Q: What sequence folds into this?
């Protein structure tokens, strides 16, 4: 039976996947690790401004998180600027400042850090941008995206810019602003060194070859609904949170798609019943668990839940944690992305 209050709402112990869940509310100054009963087993107090608050545990159990600064371009959605690593006791052990950083960042296996940043277009490049609502540039400018890898000292070791692709091939959604060409929200590193990216206002997910800088695989389709969190899963397919924003009538609510990359066919999907009960116009994420179940972050509702391959909800948690949003002028419990860790995960060894 579902509990209507915030906190743990559903827990089918026989079918849910045991583990610990890491998350933070957007703009919050705290991050939480909770158990399957929704009880905090650890909490980090973040120093300074909250941001998108993407959380990831490093190999030694530290918290890697994105926070915000007040500097940078006049863009609000996904604003970051500060990448930080906190130890288990909440001490800052590493940080990197880039006022143009936004949305995603990843700590890589080699100790380097990958992240997305805004890259303002010059006038000639901006004139190549197709689509979008006329006159919605920011102070007459269009901001592109770049993806940057830095070493622990902050030195750039690799960089890719969207300005170098065939811009005319990818028009902005006709009812989106022209402030950004791309609005990247995901940078997922691949084992071969390439990077999978998601560009929200283009309905585009793609793989960029690290050496050539070329897009070597792509899916550009309005069915993605201004998607988030695309990544490969163990069977070689692509998992993505299809938000359903600006979608066609049949796709106007959120879905989870598992896509076979060669045929681009949807081979598994999660659709809520009724469909309008699952909808997050922005943010959000998804993770295929080691049990075969799927863990979903319905970001704009602050709801984390787990479903079986058949689509049954076996665990659900509604976050009671809120933070003030300058963009909307109110308290929100939004979650950009969350992650479930196994009880024996090396990141948690000796911690919980």
A:
């Amino acid at each position: 039976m579902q509990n209507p209050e915030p906190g743990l709402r559903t827990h089918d112990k026989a079918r849910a996947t045991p583990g610990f869940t890491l998350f933070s509310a957007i703009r919050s100054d705290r991050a939480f690790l909770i158990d399957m009963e929704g009880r905090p087993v650890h909490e980090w107090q973040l120093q300074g401004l909250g941001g998108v608050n993407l959380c990831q545990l490093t190999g030694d159990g530290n918290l890697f998180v994105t926070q915000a600064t007040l500097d940078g371009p006049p863009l609000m959605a996904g604003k970051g600027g500060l990448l930080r690593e906190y130890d288990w006791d909440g001490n800052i052990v590493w940080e990197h400042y880039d006022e143009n950083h936004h949305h995603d960042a990843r700590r890589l296996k080699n100790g380097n850090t990958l992240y997305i940043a805004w890259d303002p277009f010059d006038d000639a490049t901006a004139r190549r941008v197709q689509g979008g609502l006329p006159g919605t540039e920011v102070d007459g400018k269009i901001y592109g995206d770049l993806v940057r890898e830095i070493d622990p000292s902050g030195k750039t070791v690799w960089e890719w810019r969207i300005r170098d692709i065939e811009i005319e091939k990818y028009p902005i959604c006709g009812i989106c602003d022209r402030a950004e060409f791309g609005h990247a929200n995901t940078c997922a590193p691949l084992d071969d060194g390439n990077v999978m990216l998601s560009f929200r206002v283009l309905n585009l997910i793609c793989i960029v070859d690290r050496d050539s800088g070329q897009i070597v695989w792509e899916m550009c389709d309005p069915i993605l609904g201004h998607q988030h969190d695309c990544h490969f899963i163990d069977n070689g397919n692509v998992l993505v949170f299809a938000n359903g924003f600006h979608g066609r009538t049949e796709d106007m609510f959120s879905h989870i798609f598992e896509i076979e990359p060669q045929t681009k066919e949807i081979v598994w999907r999660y659709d809520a019943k009724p469909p309008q009960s699952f909808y997050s116009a922005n943010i959000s994420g998804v993770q295929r668990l080691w049990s075969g179940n799927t863990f979903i972050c319905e970001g704009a509702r602050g709801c984390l839940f787990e479903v079986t391959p058949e689509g049954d909800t076996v665990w659900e948690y509604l976050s009671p944690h809120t933070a003030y949003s300058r963009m909307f002028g109110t308290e929100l419990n939004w979650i950009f992305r969350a992650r479930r860790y196994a009880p024996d995960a090396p990141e948690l060894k000796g911690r919980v």
Observations:
- The helical segments are 123-126.
- The longest helix spans residues 123-126.
